[in-house]
Here is the input.
Amino acid sequence: MSAFLLRYGVTNPTSYSTAFPATEDPISESGSWRTSVNFYKAPRSTPGKCFANAPTDSFDDAIGQLISPQLGNNHSVRTTVFRQGGYTTGVTHEIGHYLRVLIDNSNPSNTLIRGYEMLFPFDSTSFQMVAWLAVNHSFPDNFTILNPTAVNGGLANVQNGDVLESRIVGNLITVYQNGTQIYTLTDSTWTNGGGPGIGFYANTGATPASFCISDYQAMTL
Here is the structure.
């Protein structure tokens, strides 16, 4: 880990990096992040970690949109996994990368979310991509499951220290694990707007801080 990641708000016009030095619920980092004002959970941070601020049994993932700096339509998200030694649970627990995500709080009683999500599960290789549709809060109306093509064997079981990366350029999404491309998808549901983000889904019975991320970098491509 390079030294510049040891504090948040490290930016230039085309990137943002953080290693989550502060305790915040929800995450803000001096206004760099937007989270839902209702319904959805939010990412929170403690020094060296970012994770869901509460477990859930609904489709109200903990989602954050990076709003400062603005990184354009083509961008990437890269994170390092933290997985507590010996952690296991019998319920769903996922890290999510978001691309072209937009959290719309214009109606404070009805937050809407649009964009792409890459879901990395803790317990298997059952990777998914979805497109959030900004319509309402009930499955299947609020998102659609996409069908990426696996390459190089697809997702290997996610371990502590793994580096996960998701990229979008035009209508092409590519996903990497430890530098190796593992999925590709061409999709035009969302062609512009929004920005990079991060999210988590942890069912009741999971321990959110035991499977999460220890740093985050987003870049313009």
In short: The CA atoms of residues 42 and 93 lie 15 Å apart. The domain at 3-220 is CATH 2.60.120.560 (Jelly Rolls).
